[in-house]
Design a protein that fits this description.
Number of strands: 21
Number of helices: 5
Strand content: 35-45%
CATH class of the largest domain: Mainly Beta
Oligomer: single chain
CATH superfamily of the largest domain: Immunoglobulins
Order of helices and strands: EHHEEEEHEEEEEEEEEEEEEEEEHH
Structural class: alpha+beta
């Protein structure tokens, strides 16, 4: 009757190799094994094959799955007479790349390679999560112990400046990796240039993006603006950004005007202008003067009022004159009436119109 026993950790304390050989000699069990046993495979015991029970040329990968054989060796129970028992350990993968640092210009195309070697042959791949540039992979095995993979990047983007490309090689023994740092060169761009803002001092905030880091110049009234105790540039430099302020201490109306920021590197130049108004000059009116047309209208209106009032006064005096002539004749003081009448007429028409 055929029987089958799996050899696992627990059997190391129950079934020694001598007992195992005794069972083999009694033809109760025999070895059945592949030529190469991977770490996830375990040699099994079964009914002896007709060809015999030899253990020659059995190859094990060292690992937890064959710990039982290691224990037998340590207890000197692995006495195989003239046969020798060897353990060939697997190898941690080794990873190599064609570059450590790679510098290219924006828009260029590049190809990088990664080689992974080890036993067993490792799986190799590039990690490209978060990469903005277009990429393609090409994998091939150059020879039995090396796995190679190429990565082609098309139309390199400035967004990938400083990106770390990582290649990983992994087999049952473990994992290793190698990296390439990408440096993308591109012309400067002025992302922000703000009008003056009052803080502790007055700040014209700016942000410039470019690599290599651009040089900055300020133009005011057609000339480069010199830095002084009262006008100065304060900035912070990052990987491919420059942020800062054109700072003014107690600016006056003399500082009013257009300010132009010029950013330059080996790949190009960018400019941007902003108008800065700090204070009104002393000869400036806080409100704009009235136009000549408005002044003329007001003068005309005043003259019209004056003429109207004068006409009304003359009409009123004329009415009084008529009333006096009509009712004043009944008075016994006729001479006096004439004098009064003449006086009234003088008030309206002047000396040339005095009646006799």
């Amino acid at each position: 009757m055929k029987s089958r026993v799996d050899v696992l950790y627990s059997h190391a304390d129950v079934l020694g190799l001598r007992e195992l050989l005794a069972l083999v000699n009694q033809r109760r069990v025999g070895w059945r094994y592949p030529h190469t046993v991977n770490s996830m495979q375990v040699c099994k015991l079964s009914a002896p094959p007709a060809s015999g029970w030899r253990l020659d040329d059995v190859v094990f990968d060292c690992g937890c799955d064959v710990r039982w054989i290691q224990l037998w060796q340590q207890r000197r129970e692995a006495e195989l007479h003239r046969q020798q028992l060897y353990c060939y350990s697997g190898h941690l993968p080794r990873t190599s790349v064609t570059h450590r640092n790679l510098t290219v210009v924006e828009g260029a195309n590049i190809t990088v390679a990664c080689n992974g070697s080890g036993s067993p042959l490792p799986e190799v791949d590039w990690t490209v999560g978060g990469l903005h540039s277009i990429n393609t992979h090409q994998s091939n095995v150059d020879w039995p112990n090396v796995h190679s993979i190429n990565l082609t990047l098309v139309n390199m983007s400035r967004e990938d400046n400083g990106f770390i490309l990582t290649c990983i090689a992994e087999n049952v023994v473990g994992m290793s990796n190698a990296s390439i740092e990408l440096t993308i060169q591109f012309p400067p761009t002025i992302l922000k240039l703000e009008e003056p803002e009052r803080r502790h001092d007055t700040c014209m905030e700016f942000t410039v993006w470019g690599y290599p880091h651009p040089t900055l110049r300020w133009i005011y009234k057609g000339k480069e603006l010199p830095q002084t105790e009262y006008v100065r540039v304060e900035k912070d430099v990052y990987q491919d950004f420059i942020e800062g302020c054109l700072t003014f201490t107690n600016p006056t109306h003399h500082n009013n005007g257009n300010y132009t920021l010029v950013a330059s590197n080996s790949l190009g130049t960018a400019t941007r202008t902003v108008y800065a108004h700090f204070l009104h000059s002393l000869d400036e009116s806080p409100t704009p003067p009235l136009s000549g047309t408005h002044q003329s209208d007001e003068d005309t209106f005043g003259v019209s009022i004056a003429v109207g009032l004068a006409g009304f006064a003359c009409v009123l005096l004329l009415v009084l004159f008529v009333l006096i002539n009509k009712y004043g004749r009944r008075s016994k003081f006729g001479m006096k009436d004439q004098v009064i009448s003449g006086y009234v007429l003088i008030g309206c028409w002047g000396d040339d119109h005095i009646m006799d």
